[in-house]
Amino acid sequence: MPDLDFLGREIERMRIQMGRQRKEILQLQRAGIGTASAQALLSRMEAKVESLCAERDALKAAQPRQTKGRVLGGRTW
From which domain of life does this come (predicted)? Predict the structure, then answer.
């Protein structure tokens, strides 16, 4: 199972890739070229990012929370 760092990097990489894909779709539309396959790819990428985000959120929720060990503004030694 991937860790949180990997999931974060993968989500960020795919979001950048999706932005490029959107720009490419706009260029194709301006040129009058069909974009059905490009839009289908984009929707698959969006679904993948959503599943990665859900997996990341589940991993975050499963991690134990770290407490600072301080009491009402006490010093840290």
Answer: Bacteria
